[in-house]
Amino acid sequence: MTGHIRKVGLTIAVALTGFAVSPALADSGGVSFWLPGIFGSLAAVPAAPGWAYSTIYIHLNDKAGGGQNFVTSGGIPGSVTAGLNAHADVLVKGITYTSPMPVLGGQAAFTLLTAPGNVGVGIDATLTGPRGNTISGGASDNRTTLTDVFYQGTLKWNQGVHNELVYLTGNIPSGTYDSSRLANLSFGFPAIDAGAGYTYLDPKSGHEFSIVGGLTYNFTNSALRYQNGIDFHLDWAASQFVSKTVHVGIAGYYFQQITDDSGPGARLGGFRGMSVGIGPQIGFMIPMSDGYQGYLNIRGYKDLEVENRPSSWSTWVTFSLSQAASPPAATKPIVRKY
């Protein structure tokens, strides 16, 4: 696991309109390309066709004690450090187009996004470097930079209260990665993630439950000669609509690396990571003029258990704007001629 806080970048915020967008970051330094908790409530609910826009503020805070070791960058490819403290604040900008034409009987959409942000990283000490060289003393780095460009394609189906989703997402390196820096918001390598999900939504009772699982394949970071293993992730959320425009609930995730890290820079061996987290959420549907609908969601997560990853907490504030669903056509009265 190379880097450190490349845990920010792609997020998925989903409203009742079905608008979806996503940021993420990599297994390097004990974090992953996939940011656990990306998928939340209403993940598989189809959207109104047309364009949608979102702004997502994400704050992340990671901490690992001096007894935990990580492989990082910072000018020493494959160096092993003790302890890790990192924070990041990013402002994701995304755009989604939902097609009005059915695809395989479902609804197709495509999203592009990127985000400027600030990331700060500190380490307690560098233990070993290339050829066994030992370097002591702490180090820190702070940088305002840009994430990679992220893309995502989705297909969604609806059958009454049941909704299904399949997706494919990945990143296009932005060129802002710097292997000589500890602080990076970009990865230094591409990755691909694919998965499927389900949402139960009953408008009459207001009950909602969503679950999405997927697998991430990471390509090699050539600067660090390091390849992250394959990751499995499961995001879930449950909420209750307390009115037509407000829902409250909880959300959580399970993340597990299922294959070893590899390459000459993988000095800690397989270094498989795991994390389990949970937190509260609240969402607001906001009627807008000119046929648009807004959605504001606030949620947070706290890790309950981690392995080979920093313990983290995060806050997400999402505002999306999309075309409102068309009201059902009025039924004309039957006129009989006698």
Could you characterize the architecture of this molecule?
This protein has 338 residues and is mainly beta. It contains no helices and 15 strands. Strands 1-2-3-7-8-9-10-11-12-13-14-15 form a twelve-stranded antiparallel β-barrel. A hairpin with a 4-residue loop joins strand 11 and strand 12. The radius of gyration is 21 Å and the shape is elongated.
Largest sheet: 12 strands, antiparallel, barrel
Mean pLDDT: 82
**What is the helix tally?**
0
Query: SSE order, as H and E?
Result: EEEEEEEEEEEEEEE
Instruction: Please tally the β strands and state the result.
Output: 15
- Cα distance spanning the termini: 80 Å
Which percent bin holds the helix content? under 10%
Strand order of the largest sheet: 1-2-3-7-8-9-10-11-12-13-14-15
Uncertain stretches: 1-26, 328-338
* Rg: 21 Å
Strand fraction? over 45%
* Overall body shape: elongated
Helix/strand/pairing class, anyone? mainly beta
